[in-house]
Amino acid sequence: MKRDTSPTAAFQPAAPRGIVEGLVYVFERVMPDPFVLSICLTFVVAVLALLIAPTGNVPTLLDSWYTGTFGILAFALQMILILALYAIAEAPIVQRGLRALAAHAQSACARCAAGGVRRDRAWLNWGLGLIVGALLSREIARRVHVDFAWLVAGSYSAWSICNSGLSSSIALSQASHGNALNLVEKATGHVVPLAETIFAPFVFIPTVLVVVVMTAIFIKMHPKSDNVVAFCDAGDANDDTSSADPHARSSDGTATFASRLERSMLGTLLLLVLGVGYLAMEWRENKFDLDINTTILIFLLIGLALQRTPIAYANAIRRAARQTGSMLLQYPVYGGIMGIMKGTGLASMIAKAFVTIATPATLPVWSYLSSLIITLLVPSAGGHWAVQGPFVLPAAISLHASVPRTAMGVAMAENVSNMLQPFWAVPIVAIAGIRIQRVMGYTAVTFAVSLVIYAAALWLVH
């Protein structure tokens, strides 16, 4: 029995029948809205900081919270701008491409194969994995009777390998001479090449295993037909973009200067010249590199080119912007959490606790386990590394443990914890147009499986 429902509408699921359905059932009833969850986490972190942190006094806590809250605003805007990539999906040529790709997904195996493609994109670049997964999920769900939350969860599960790929901030920073986060170089004078991190067997083998194993598991755990909640594309039906074009016609029916300017490609061409010119100059003077800002810029330029006119692009962004409200609230709150964790010394205390009981053989695993905890509260790889790195790396050097393995233990745990931390899931569920609770019920399975695979690889693969 098919049950279509709006992605944003409340859903009352049937009683759970199995482990996976039970997880989905529990998450829908226990997990609050991500903004409310971020407030709850703030309370927990604040209490812990006051009770056990080295400098957990009220003035330090308040100052750290304020600094973190407003220190994350640039990053928050970056995440919101990612939603501007939605404008690319609305371009006619992209719509045709997505429809052609989605048309091949006519079975559970084909849908999961598409999920494997999205994992390839996540390994290449975390932003590509995030956006392609959401957009392709919508197109597949329009054509195939499939549980939409399951499909989106499969897309987001691609993030279980992104910190082991070519956009891993920890691996890239340790391989970059003079990088501010290259803590290995600061401590030893040497950089760590990618051959010793993301291409090393202890990272590459579990990354491949996670892709293969989770693809098979997702095929098996698709809900039974009577529990399927299909996609309902009602989001844009009532969207009135004409209100954004009040000067389209004058009283005598002729086009106005304003409407002609809005529909002129000159504005688009100007921005394209500026953007492409900057990228060409930057990549000519320095080596080719994709960070978060250049990735966003590239997709903004692509969206402009595909939409052709400024008003078409503005209307597409206006539709995407309806999804950003929750993000606007959540990221500053998480910034406050990160500020408290770092400013009061709570994060460093957690890292030190694991380091003190480590041996040369076990330090990478203890680094991994401590990172699992810290990531749930500091869900930013760069910020996380800045907190945990200064404690695990000196320990690795003094114990003569593997520095690359210890550093990547932190990164691999980021992969795992992101499956339970909604911080990074917010953009993909916003683009897809679905409530996050049902999605997290499925990604909890990815968390459990990848947790074991990455831990075993750190311990056993050499």
UniProtKB/TrEMBL annotation:
It holds the Pfam family SCFA_trans. One of its GO terms (molecular function) is transaminase activity. InterPro entries: SCFA_transpt_AtoE. The keyword Transferase applies. The chain crosses the membrane at residues 35-53, 65-89, 123-141, 198-219, 264-281, 296-316, 328-351, 357-378, 441-461. Keywords: Aminotransferase, Membrane, Pyruvate, Transferase, Transmembrane, Transmembrane helix. It comes from the Bacteria. One of its GO terms (cellular component) is plasma membrane. This is Serine--pyruvate aminotransferase. It comes from Paraburkholderia steynii.
